[in-house]
Write a structure and sequence with these properties.
Elements lengths: L21 H14 L3 E4 L4 H13 L4 E2 L9 E3 L13 E3 L4 H4 L4 E2 L2 H12 L7 E9 L8 E7 L2 H10 L1 E2 L1 H7 L8 E6 L9 E5 L4 E5 L4 H4 L2 H17 L2 E3 L2 E6 L5 E7 L6 H5 L11 E6 L3 E6 L2 E5 L4 E5 L9 H6 L5 E3 L2 E3 L4 E2 L11 E2 L5 E2 L13 E5 L16 E9 L9 E3 L3 H9 L2 E3 L11 E3 L12 H14 L5 E5 L19 H12 L5 E2 L4 E2 L14 H8 L3 H17 L6 H15 L1
Parallel strand pairs: 1-6, 3-19, 4-5, 4-10, 7-9, 9-11, 14-25, 25-29
Antiparallel strand pairs: 2-3, 6-7, 6-8, 10-11, 12-16, 13-14, 13-15, 16-17, 17-25, 18-24, 19-24, 20-21, 20-22, 22-23, 26-29, 27-28, 30-31
The protein binds oxalic acid and manganese (II) ion (MN).
The site of manganese (II) ion (MN) has 3 residues, from loops.
Length: about 600
């Protein structure tokens, strides 16, 4: 196998932070014996270690240094062109039985898969350095916080993990030396980045992840989708909490009254933009703050949901990000940022489609080829990414490190739908809200490989991330509701509805504040609404549309519930539930019948 990650040799004092926990030492020894690396590098997350790893990565062309004046302390990484997005086809939940993984996951039997993967890992790190990355997910003093270890042969992974998680000493401290303590085992090897030898496998019953053959973020930063969502959702059900694909934001009124909202949108549907929203001028004095942009871990306290963001950074989609679409994201990625697969300008700045200003006359595209505005290819890959520490975000919420989390007043589901689904509506109650989440659908994006723009059901935006049987996951949601005496209100939004001319009806971005304001009004018990077959709908007067350039017809179209479209939608709900082969809880089947009844009235 070609050695695409040659070993590095740290000076004394770097790479030797061996933990005291015997369970970890035994596991690292076992994986070392299997993968046969040149040496083992125990990461401590320090600045000195980071500088050393960056210097070595520059030497090995894993990173390109960007213009220090324009984007200080920032770097560009190019992944293999065959490896640019999450690959759901080769992502497996490896429970002992197929039923454990359920109808929506690829399943592969646990014991067989371990043997196959151990076969691939045998000698896989020869001539390479094996890095051991300790990290925690969650604020340091949260009861929800989990410890993970990722073994990897990729320097890019180590550098990214340092941004995306709280890495190093802090994890060793949290773990302590109890060999029976709970911690996640993650093994990653690039192998030779061959799509035919690429597998992302989860063993929830063993709290273990093995990912081989990829170097792309979502497949290899094992803290994120693999631990915080797939394994996390499994642990959450066992332990009575929730791990969700949700942003968390704070909304503060001019009077200083604050609510927190969690929102689940599928990948690349604007979670980062929503989490960093800047209200339009009309909403003077209102403030939006970010707790998280992708993942929420929630537990019940005093009959309410409280949420923490388990991550420490943002791994966001770059194209389309501009001072117009998301000024806070732009400020966040102006420095200390690790870019992947964007274009490089002649003065070592970064560029992507949708960035402010004119395109450069010449650049090097994401594959490393010359690019000009006349080129047919995109300069930046549509799924090119930034990894940036959350402390870079000017709108970071003050309570982001709070161990007990923030109370969630409202949960919002949403997807990309050109038709049928109104701009916003509210569920009648928690179980109806679970139905809205369970039947959510969205047009597919570039975040995963495969066709773009096809409507697929994506329950709670968790289709690619639920680590167990989706029927049990729905039931878990229903059961959580039964334990809540002060449940979050549940809403559905759709920023992407189009008019008959094929154009978006709603301006989106900062103007989404108008929808958020209605959500908050409903939480405060002051927002008006009309009862419709699909849920509580705002009338045009209930939304604050002042100083917005939008005509009556567009507003009516945005808020309309078209019976013919909804009959089709209902049939799709039934088709989806039926496709799950009998795992859908009766309470949700009943919700579907109720909707059918309301539409027939
Ligand atoms: C992500 C995704 O990277 O959902 O957040 O794909
Ligand atoms: Mn995501």
């Amino acid at each position: 196998m070609k050695n695409i990650a040659p070993a590095i040799f740290p000076p004394n004092g770097i790479g030797d932070a061996r933990p005291a926990n015997q369970g970890v030492l035994d596991w690292v020894h076992e994986i070392g014996k299997l993968t046969k690396p040149e040496n083992i590098f125990w990461c401590d997350g320090s600045e000195r270690e980071n500088e050393f790893l960056i210097a070595e990565s520059l030497k090995q062309n894993v990173l390109i240094k960007l213009n220090e004046r324009k984007v200080p302390r920032s770097y560009l990484h190019r992944s293999n062109p065959n490896d640019v997005a999450r690959v759901e086809r080769v992502t497996f939940i490896c429970t002992p039985t197929k039923e454990g993984a359920g109808p929506t996951n690829n399943w592969s039997e646990a014991a067989d898969t371990y043997s196959k993967l151990y076969g691939l890992l045998n000698g896989a790190m020869r001539g390479r350095t094996m890095f051991v990355v300790p990290y925690i997910m969650g604020p340091p003093d949260s009861p929800l916080t989990k410890v993970g270890f990722e073994i990897t042969d990729s320097k890019y992974v180590v550098l990214s993990m340092r941004i995306m998680t709280r890495m190093g000493e802090i994890a060793l401290k949290r773990l302590g030396d109890d060999p029976k303590a709970e911690w996640n085992r993650g093994v990653h090897s690039l192998l030779d980045v061959d799509p035919d030898r690429r597998f992302i496998c989860h063993f929830p019953q063993d709290n273990t992840i093995i990912s081989v053959g990829s170097g792309y973020g979502g497949n290899v930063l094992l803290s994120k989708k693999c631990l915080a969502l797939r394994i996390g959702s499994y642990l959450a059900r066992e332990q009575g909490w929730m791990a969700e694909h949700m942003l968390i934001l704070g909304v503060e009124s001019p009077e200083g009254k604050k609510h927190y909202v969690a929102a689940a949108f599928p990948s690349a549907c604007g979670k980062t933009n929503f989490a960093m929203l800047i209200p339009p001028r009309h909403f003077k004095g209102w403030k939006i703050t970010t707790v998280g942009d992708d993942i929420a871990w929630m537990e019940i306290r005093d009959g309410r949901l409280f949420a923490v963001n388990p991550e420490n950074g943002y791994f966001g989609v770059v194209p389309g990000t501009s001072y117009k679409s998301n000024p806070n994201a732009m400020r966040s990625i102006e420095h200390d940022t690790l870019y992947t697969n964007v274009a490089l300008t002649d003065d070592s700045d970064v560029w992507w489609e949708g960035k402010d200003g004119a395109p450069p006359k010449h650049a090097i595209d994401w594959r490393g080829n010359d690019w000009t505005p006349d080129s047919k290819e995109k300069a930046a890959h549509p799924n090119s990414r930034f990894a940036t520490p959350m402390r870079n975000n000017p709108a970071l919420d003050v309570d982001v490190e709070k161990g007990e989390g923030v109370p969630i007043s409202a949960i919002i589901f949403g997807g990309r739908r050109s038709d049928t689904v109104p701009l916003v509506y509210q569920a009648f109650d928690w179980t109806h809200g679970v139905y809205l989440g369970a039947t959510m659908a969205s047009e597919t994006t570039a975040a995963a490989t495969g066709a773009v723009g096809q409507v697929r059901r994506d329950p709670m935006a968790m289709l690619p991330f639920c680590g167990y049987n989706i029927g049990d996951y729905f039931q878990h949601w229903i059961d959580i509701g039964k334990r809540l005496t002060n449940p979050s209100l549940i809403f559905n939004v759709n920023w992407f509805r189009k008019g008959t001319n094929g154009k978006f009806l709603w301006p989106g971005f900062g103007e989404n504040m108008r929808v958020l304001k209605w959500v908050i009004d409903r939480c405060e018990g002051i927002g008006g609404a009309l009862e419709s077959p699909v849920g509580w709908l705002p009338s045009p007067h209930d939304l604050d549309l002042e100083e917005l350039d939008i005509d009556h017809k567009s507003v009516a179209d945005l808020l309309g519930v078209d019976h013919e479209e909804w009959q089709k939608e209902l049939a799709e709900h039934k088709k989806f539930f039926d496709s799950l082969g009998g795992v859908v809880p009766d309470e949700l089947e009943k919700q579907r019948e109720n909707l059918e009844g309301r539409l027939a009235e």
